[in-house]
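Kindly go through one protein, given below as sequence and tokens. The question is how this chain folds according to its tokens.

***
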Amino acid sequence: MDKERYANAPLLFIHQAQHINPEVQMQYNYVSNRRSERRGKDKQEENIKKENTSNTKFKDLPVKEKINYIQSLPDNAPKMYYHVLTKERNYRGEVDEVLENELILSSSGNEWKLDIDKITDIQIIGF
């Protein structure tokens, strides 16, 4: 067993100059902290459950989650145009800002403040 811990010379080699190979001791045991691995697995399972909810399509999300998605987009992302449906009327434009109970939508000089509770659906039109 003691020989297995050391590196061996190659079994097949072409004639080369003789030089001394250093003896390298190989690793023969391994110790891990299993408790932290189990905790890590639990956290990974929770993350997977959260990721599954975030993988749903935009059109299948409820209105509140659509607004959260729009609000969480980075500032350097291109502005997207949305079709916002309310009980009274339909609006098309880009979302400028999301406040507590209002969604500010603008299109070609017009600006609308829409109450979030009155919004029935939001659809993405494009860039």
Q: What stands out?
A: The mean pLDDT is 77.
